[in-house]
């Protein structure tokens, strides 16, 4: 394991813990952004430049900005934070714990094959290779995902649409 | 790669960093000179010849001012905000190809910080991260006006990023690559006529896309007429209302670096980057009539191309400032309407138009 991998993993785990342990929601969001950066670093180590860049643009650049936007708008503070009942906390702990169990069980028998430097394809994970795979081998799932996004978009427009005679500002 | 080559490349990175800072410094001077010119005033002329030492005087003033923390501010994030704004602004200039290759014997120097396969996406990602500095600073100030500025910055950047990305997709359809160096080289042309050469620039194939891109660049760098996050008539100073001394200076500086990077990106994507008309004619003339070696002639072309790219960049920076002192600020709902109901449909139309023109072989 390279020192870079160990460093990135260390920061990733630390910042992921920061997300759930930070009292201030804005700090949580910032820790989450740091987590996404370390994940992008991992993608780069795996030779997936495109995925790393898109992860930064979509998650760190767009979705987290909206998260921060909503949190700033609601002005959530430690004092106004709603306290959840104990039952909900226990249920969340059980659900999260079983998800962890499933993930660990799925990973248990994985045996990384390693790679042969003679036959290793350095272009794997690059954007043109990814495009070829995505539009040939996985064309149907790709198109179905776009239909899903379209449905979400239409739903958002329906919810946000101004009724006749209604003024929003 | 041998160590000397790496050393040269490291030097290029340092020079890019230094040049970004230098240009940002003198942009503050240029802004005042241009404002004075457009408003028929004298402008800064006290510090040094022609007022050229004015940025230095400003820096001394900002560094020696009292550092002030507002009551109830989140101190850590209050300091972190300007740092983040500066960092993200400086990071984007790393992938811009400022020039072609310089060759000295065995050593080959690329006049570019780093060449990555996904350069265009990298710049786009860094631009989208630029808003965090403003948002965090505005929120940490514990001031209503700062918070409003931060929220405006967030929604404005998200809205204009979409149109900007769609404009970039049309460029991508023509260039078929995300690497900024490749895109620049594709815009070169060996044709003997100046018209042919200029027709090869992407702005000729993407006039609509360029207009969309430059409008979005104004919004993403928070420049007038879209400087709503710091709109002083409504929000005092917007996100930097509570800032003083060099933390304030870093915010202003980051804005000028963003203007520089946006100008450089537009020059590279749409105006041929380091290519200039007649470059191949000049090279063959240098080789055949002046008896220079091909490598030396190419080095001369590279340096001229570097100068040409900076001329384009300064032209765009001047345009940014010209617009600032000419157009009044938009109202916030006008800004949103322009972004969502005009620019995004136009950008989608531009993509369909480009696709059609490529299909019918009009452009390639």
From TrEMBL, chain A:
Entry annotated with the keyword Membrane: yes
Swiss-Prot/TrEMBL catalytic activity: a quinone + NADH + 5 H(+)(in) = a quinol + NAD(+) + 4 H(+)(out)
Gene Ontology cellular-component annotations: plasma membrane
Membrane-topology annotation of the record: Multi-pass membrane protein
Record-annotated membrane-spanning stretches: 28-46, 53-74, 86-106, 138-159
InterPro entries assigned to the protein according to its UniProt record, in alphabetical order: NADH_UbQ/plastoQ_OxRdtase_su6, Nuo/plastoQ_OxRdtase_6_NuoJ
Keywords of this entry: Cell membrane, Membrane, NAD, Quinone, Transmembrane, Transmembrane helix
A Gene Ontology molecular function term of the record: NADH dehydrogenase (ubiquinone) activity
Enzyme class: translocase
Family statement: Belongs to the complex I subunit 6 family.
Name this protein carries in UniProt: NADH-quinone oxidoreductase subunit J
Organism field: Hymenobacter montanus
UniProtKB/TrEMBL annotation, chain B:
Membrane topology, record value: Multi-pass membrane protein
Record's catalysed reaction(s): a quinone + NADH + 5 H(+)(in) = a quinol + NAD(+) + 4 H(+)(out)
EC number(s) per entry: 7.1.1.-
Molecular function GO terms recorded: NADH dehydrogenase activity; oxidoreductase activity, acting on NAD(P)H, quinone or similar compound as acceptor; quinone binding
Transmembrane segments: 6-29, 77-99, 119-140, 256-280, 300-323, 335-363
A cellular component term, taken from the record's GO annotations: plasma membrane
Name of the top EC class for this enzyme: translocase
A GO biological process held by the record: aerobic respiration
NCBIfam families (alphabetical): PRK06076.1-2
Family assignment from sequence similarity: Belongs to the complex I subunit 1 family.
Subunit relationships: NDH-1 is composed of 14 different subunits. Subunits NuoA, H, J, K, L, M, N constitute the membrane sector of the complex.
Protein name: NADH-quinone oxidoreductase subunit H
């Amino acid at each position: 394991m390279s020192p870079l991998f160990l460093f990135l993993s260390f920061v990733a785990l630390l910042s992921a813990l920061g997300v759930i342990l930070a009292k201030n929601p804005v700090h949580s969001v910032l820790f989450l952004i740091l987590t996404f950066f370390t994940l992008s670093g991992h993608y780069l180590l795996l030779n997936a430049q495109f995925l790393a860049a898109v992860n930064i643009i979509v998650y760190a650049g767009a979705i987290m900005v909206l998260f921060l936007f909503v949190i700033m708008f609601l002005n959530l503070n430690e004092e106004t934070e709603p306290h959840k009942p104990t039952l909900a906390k226990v249920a969340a702990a059980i659900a999260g714990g079983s998800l962890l169990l499933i993930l660990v069980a799925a990973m248990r028998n994985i045996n990384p094959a390693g790679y042969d430097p003679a036959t290793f394809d350095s272009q794997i994970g690059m954007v043109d290779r990814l495009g070829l795979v995505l539009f040939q081998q996985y064309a149907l799932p790709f198109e179905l995902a776009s239909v899903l996004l379209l449905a979400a978009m239409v739903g958002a427009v329906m919810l946000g649409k101004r009724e006749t005679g209604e003024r929003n500002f | 790669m041998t160590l000397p080559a790496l050393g040269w490349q490291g030097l290029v990175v340092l020079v890019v960093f230094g040049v970004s800072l230098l240009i940002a410094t003198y942009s503050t001077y240029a802004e005042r000179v241009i404002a004075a010119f457009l408003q028929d005033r004298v402008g800064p002329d006290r510090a040094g010849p022609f007022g050229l030492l004015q940025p230095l005087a400003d820096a001394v003033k900002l560094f020696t001012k009292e550092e002030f923390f507002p009551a109830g501010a989140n101190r850590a994030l209050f300091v972190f905000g300007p740092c983040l704004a500066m960092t993200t602004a400086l990071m984007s200039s790393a992938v811009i190809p400022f020039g072609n290759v310089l060759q000295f014997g065995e050593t080959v120097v690329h006049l570019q910080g780093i060449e990555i396969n996904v350069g265009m996406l990298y710049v786009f990602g860094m631009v989208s991260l630029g808003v965090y500095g403003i948002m965090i600073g505005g929120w940490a100030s514990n001031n209503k006006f700062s918070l409003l500025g931060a929220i405006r910055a967030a929604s404005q950047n998200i809205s204009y990023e979409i149109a900007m990305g769609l404009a970039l997709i049309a460029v991508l359809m023509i260039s078929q690559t995300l690497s900024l160096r490749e895109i620049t080289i594709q815009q070169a042309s060996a044709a003997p006529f100046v018209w042919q050469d200029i027709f090869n620039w992407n702005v000729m194939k993407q006039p609509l896309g360029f207009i969309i891109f430059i409008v979005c660049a104004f919004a993403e760098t928070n420049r007038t007429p879209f400087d709503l996050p710091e709109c002083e008539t409504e929000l005092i100073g917007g996100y930097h209302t509570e800032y003083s001394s060099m933390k304030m200076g870093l915010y202003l500086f980051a804005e000028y670096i963003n203007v520089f990077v946006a100008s450089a990106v537009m020059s590279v994507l749409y105006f041929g980057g380091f290519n200039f008309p007649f470059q191949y004619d000049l090279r063959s003339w240098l080789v055949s009539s002046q008896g220079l070696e091909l490598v030396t002639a190419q080095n001369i072309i590279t340096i001229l191309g570097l100068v040409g790219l900076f001329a384009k960049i300064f032209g765009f920076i001047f345009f940014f400032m010209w617009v600032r002192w000419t157009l009044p600020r938009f109202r916030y709902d006008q800004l949103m309407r322009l972004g969502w109901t005009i620019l995004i449909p136009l950008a989608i139309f531009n993509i369909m138009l480009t696709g059609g023109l490529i299909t019918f072989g009009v452009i390639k």
